[in-house]
Design goal:
homodimer, alpha/beta, 5-stranded parallel sheet, 4-stranded mixed sheet, 9 strands, 45% helix
Chain lengths: 202, 202
């Protein structure tokens, strides 16, 4: 009997080292597919269509909103970002789990439609590490850094809406925790009832 | 910051291969301690006090019941079986998780007192495997085998009261699933709130 795929939503404040952790999760697990977002912003150097994003124009994006073709979407500065529903449903139907790297609002939109989605929030064990990592980039002004720290704090408060909190002091350990969560979720009784149905007290 | 220990209750019908799986879980994980039950039955050849059981007399066992010194207890044929509370609480306070190998009734008693206890039911993916394993022992009469199969079926129906169902077709894979469950439970937001409290929006 096949196990069915899961929706795995991973969020975390800027500086939590989320993308490294996600790539470690994906590296060795062929049962998990990464969800590629759609955006109306222009591709940056090195970004590839269908890998980093689906790059589409504003009119197309708005028609996808109107037709309910997005699992979630948000607007940031002048651009739209969102998750096309079709590839997600296709992968689920093939038994794959789908992993989303999206921010808090998008995560809540997915949970609302799919209460069985697994919401994981990634943070370092010590908040001061966030500040350290944001400063390390060395490209932002102090004002911008302070703004990012404040945003990170607000995002921290949203973590209470997540099912799991994964600690990223070491990306390998954090990836290990996420993989354990995916395995454990598949073992939940509600997901394995089928193994009980064959037994009847005749 | 230390993670706190968990109560992990493992049950399963006779023939599910539970004890092998449990020993695989314990082998490499020093953070999990096995809960030794108390019993009033006489030790069998090769059984050791404090390893297989705490062997105590009926009067002592009944005084433990009266004094609330047992987490759970049950009577089987003419003997009592139960879990002394003190070693469990001591191990938890040291940050260890405690794993219990107990039957369904005892599991329900523990869940009632400790709703945060993790209940895991171990079964093979195919019920006919249970029958095969019960017959393999070759020591029981057909009548006794039929009785054991019926008991196993009744136990299967109790699995719906468990949090997780672990499939034991391969003891290593089953042990892997139980370890993943323990890791995932530690990551639950309710168990990691402490990492969020340090952040304030001042």
């Amino acid at each position: 009997m096949n196990e069915s795929g899961k929706l795995i939503v991973v969020s975390g404040p800027s500086g939590a080292g989320k993308s490294t952790v996600i790539s470690r999760v994906m590296e060795n697990d062929k049962s998990v597919v990464f969800s590629v977002s759609a955006t109306t912003r222009a591709p940056r150097a090195g970004e590839h269509e269908g890998v980093d994003y689906f790059f589409i124009d504003k009119k197309h994006f708005e028609s996808m909103i109107d037709n309910g073709e997005l699992l979630e979407h948000t607007q940031y500065v002048d651009n739209y970002y969102g998750t096309p529903k079709l590839p997600v449903l296709e992968n689920l139907s093939k038994g794959f789990s789908v992993l989303f790297d999206i921010e808090v609002q998008g995560a809540m939109q997915i949970k609302k439609q799919y209460p069985e989605a697994i919401l994981i929030f990634v943070i370092p064990s010590d908040f001061s590490e966030i500040e350290k990592r944001l400063r390390k980039r060395g490209t932002d002004s102090e004002e911008k850094i302070q703004q990012r720290i404040k945003t990170a704090k607000i995002e921290y408060l949203m973590a209470l809406n997540y099912d799991y909190i994964v600690i990223n002091d070491d990306p390998d350990l954090a990836a290990f925790e996420i993989k354990a969560i995916i395995t454990a979720e598949k073992c939940k009784t509600v997901n394995r009832k089928k193994y009980l149905t064959e037994v009847s007290l005749s």
